[in-house]
């Protein structure tokens, strides 16, 4: 699979304010990626820089092996073959849908332009609405037209800046999957900016997690959830809580809920104080389970209920119960651990520089 977009060690600034630092990643042809992170982390700035709206201070951006942004070089947005879908749709209110889609096709012949408009409206299931104006459409329909307009010139990459944030949850979910289907059918790469993890995981092949202008991890959604590389990613992606423990035998941890056995070895000495990340699916309801906890709060989701539970020490954990297991606030429930692997981080101040003897001998 060929690399389409290469972002290398870029820094972006507004005047002297540094927005992003040392960001590097690659996007392959046909892949969809998502830039995920809290507000103010630099997601939209990074997207605008790729689009050519903002310059880079250091580093470079290449498209198909050609540098399009560098400190002394900036290819204009209209020359990049990069399409953009904005949060507010940015449709022209005085133009019909067909005229909106045709707007970027001035270099096409009349016949080619008409054929492309019909093709794009059909692609987004709006072939019968080309005569209407934007104000006559719902939000979801307007977003489809914005996508059709961005796709019409056949760009190499589509950039989507929180395109579904103005829509309700069900429509957002449906439209996200529809956009993924369309991009995949055309083999067009996409970069989505969002703060919604569910949206990111549903749409993207790869997700880049940003925080304070730095790329924390670039990985598949599965690996971000199961193999977070630092505490920020572990906390930000998915749900979970850290509980304290003590490392034993490099792959087991003693905690207040018992010995948790993992399937990997950590390169720290026995006795290292660690924090264990537990997801709601790592702790399960069990009437005969050895762990007792008090129900602090719960959220019914239909097929399951997410319980917030307090352990005897006061430590808070979360667990997803089958919806038929019904408990009230203050009830005591029994649990067992079903974690098939460990996600550990040394506790602040822990000495982790010494190599465990067992691993040293093995090497």
UniProtKB/TrEMBL annotation:
Extract the PROSITE patterns matched here: ABC_TRANSPORTER_1, ABC_TRANSPORTER_2
Record has Nucleotide-binding as a keyword: yes
Q: Which UniProt keywords apply?
A: ATP-binding, Nucleotide-binding, Transport
Domain ABC transporter: where? 5-237
Q: Does the keyword Transport apply?
A: yes
Gene3D superfamilies xrefs = 2.40.50.100, Nucleic acid-binding proteins, P-loop containing nucleotide triphosphate hydrolases
Q: Which GO terms describe its cellular component?
A: ATP-binding cassette (ABC) transporter complex
One GO biological process this protein is involved in is: quaternary ammonium group transport
Q: Which GO terms describe its molecular function?
A: ATP binding; ATP hydrolysis activity; transmembrane transporter activity
Please identify the protein, giving its name as recorded: Iron ABC transporter ATP-binding protein
Q: Which organism is it from?
A: Oceanospirillum linum
Q: What is the lineage of its organism?
A: Bacteria, Pseudomonadati, Pseudomonadota, Gammaproteobacteria, Oceanospirillales
